[in-house]
């Protein structure tokens, strides 16, 4: 793993969803991921975005990723480039509000 050596001013992050990865080869995965030596699975019980069915709502994954970057790279400045939950443009956006709620 590469260490953050102070050669960058910040990290920029785009986050959409999280996968559970295990060692192994997934021969049904799209190329080039067949040779990546990991199997990525997503919890199909998680809510999904109405406009992007592949996007499962995993806010805990976003939090975990930010905490990992803080520890791994000695707490650098982080800019969130993209994040969230796509919707269909409704005004009472309860699903997005639920996504951004703070959880312990």
* Portion in beta strands: 15-25%
In order across it, which strands form the biggest sheet?
1-4
User: What integer value in Å does the Rg equal?
Assistant: 16 Å
| Low-confidence segments | none
The oligomeric state of the chains shown is single chain
Overall geometry comes to: flat
Give the mean pLDDT: 81
Q: What string, H for helix and E for strand, traces the elements in order?
A: EEEHEH
* Structural classification: alpha+beta
In DSSP terms (H or I, runs of 4 or more residues), the helix count works out at 2
Terminal CA distance reads: 29 Å
Proportion of residues in helical segments: 10-25%
- How does the major sheet shape up? 2 strands, parallel
The beta-strand count equals 4
Describe this structure in words.
Helices cover 20% and strands 16% of the residues. The chain has 104 residues and is an alpha+beta fold. The chain has a domain at 11-18 and 47-100. The strands form 2 sheets. It has a two-stranded parallel sheet. A two-stranded antiparallel sheet has the order 2-3. It is flat. 3% of the residues are buried.
């Amino acid at each position: 793993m590469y260490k953050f050596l102070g050669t960058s001013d910040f990290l920029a992050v785009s986050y959409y969803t999280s996968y559970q990865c295990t060692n192994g080869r997934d021969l049904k995965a799209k190329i080039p991921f067949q040779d990546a030596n990991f199997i990525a699975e997503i919890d199909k019980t998680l809510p999904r975005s109405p406009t992007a069915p592949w996007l499962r709502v995993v806010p805990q994954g976003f939090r975990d990723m930010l905490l990992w970057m803080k520890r791994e790279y000695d707490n650098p400045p982080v800019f969130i480039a993209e994040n969230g939950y796509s919707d269909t443009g409704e005004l009472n956006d309860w699903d997005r509000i639920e996504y951004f709620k703070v959880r312990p």
